[in-house]
Design a protein that fits this description.
The protein is an alpha+beta fold and about 325 residues long. The protein contains ten helices and 14 strands. A hairpin with a 4-residue loop joins strand 13 and strand 14.
């Protein structure tokens, strides 16, 4: 029997947002408590429970937690009600567990979905060098070129002065040379402690101050970001960055390519994507979970690839529902 298409599209996004809301709310008691695994475990359990109610058959292609033995929704796990469209799904119940544990900004709960078989499984290699911009960078920037050249070309295409270009990048030792190059080119940096998914999405949104997101970050996070960038009509490229030989060996076994530029339609080959995120802690993209009297308040974003629709969703729940 022929499988139904991703249907009904508008409702699927709204169903999925309940799962990221649940993960964010369940992690709220652990914000600033110093225990990232406890926060992650609560978020994972909540997300799994709510995904079970969604009318789809989701196969986890990009799971969460494998890098550090944290609680996880594992690769290959089937989630959903068992009815409806077959999809690939990438999950990160908390992108920014360390941020959550420390009470810092920009932690989010995130889900990305695309048609079954369309999402690249890059989980065998933990790191990826990325270049992300909004629509203004399409056909203009290229990760093969120097970062300073890309900044100049992007500035020209977007009608900005170079010194107005803001580039988000993870604040890591392995990105220091890029941070220096950004500043030498005359552009500004926004250094991210963690959470480069939000940085990438911000780079592609017209309402955001961020123009580009670059540098080495997580490969799984890169695929999650690609779903959102594809839905927003932005530009993204990635080059896998193994740190040790065993990573390269396991990547080769998985059929991954090295010294190779993955274009966005190779990371996610379907344009029928969804990107859903809920703020855990306050950030530039989303407000974090808040308790107001007997209510819990969340803010989420839902991006639908087919229509390139972006919805911001503010929800209030009765506190006793989550106690």
């Amino acid at each position: 029997m022929e499988q139904p298409s991703l249907h009904p599209d508008r409702n699927l996004a709204m169903e999925l947002v309940r799962a990221t809301e649940a993960a964010a709310i369940r992690s709220y008691p652990f914000i600033g408590r110093g225990d990232k695994n406890a926060a992650d475990g609560a978020a994972v359990d909540a997300m799994r429970a709510f995904l079970a109610t969604v009318s789809f058959q989701g196969k986890v292609v990009i799971g969460e937690g494998e890098k550090d033995d944290a609680p996880m929704l594992f690769n290959g796990e089937i989630v959903g009600s068992g009815e409806g469209p077959e999809t690939d799904i990438a999950v990160d119940p908390i992108d920014g567990t360390s941020l959550t544990a420390a009470g810092r900004m920009n932690a989010i709960s995130v889900i990305a979905v695309s048609d079954r078989g369309s999402m690249l499984d890059a989980s065998a290699v933990y790191k990826m060098n990325k270049l992300v911009t909004g629509p203004a960078g399409v056909g203009v920037v290229d990760i093969r070129d120097s970062l300073s050249q890309n900044i100049r070309e992007y500035a020209k295409a977007s009608g900005k002065a170079t010194e107005e270009v803001l580039v988000a990048i993870l604040d890591r030792d392995y990105n220091e040379h890029l941070i220096e190059e950004i500043r030498s080119a005359g552009a500004r940096t926004r250094l991210l402690r963690d959470g480069d998914v939000a940085g990438g999405i911000q780079a592609a949104r017209e309402s955001s101050r961020v123009d580009m997101c670059v540098g080495i970050g997580g490969s799984p996070e890169g695929i999650v970001t690609a779903c959102g960038i594809r839905a927003l009509g932005g530009h993204m490229q990635g080059i896998l960055h193994p740190r040790e030989q065993f990573e390269k060996d396991q990547g080769l076994k998985a059929g991954l390519k090295f010294d190779y530029v993955y274009e966005i339609d190779e990371m996610v080959s379907s344009g029928n994507t969804f990107f859903i995120a809920t703020g855990v802690t306050d950030g530039a993209m989303l407000e974090g979970v808040k308790r107001k009297g007997n209510r819990v308040v969340t803010e989420s974003i839902a991006i639908r690839g087919k229509s390139q629709t972006v919805r911001t969703i503010r929800a209030e729940y009765a506190l006793e529902r989550w106690s």
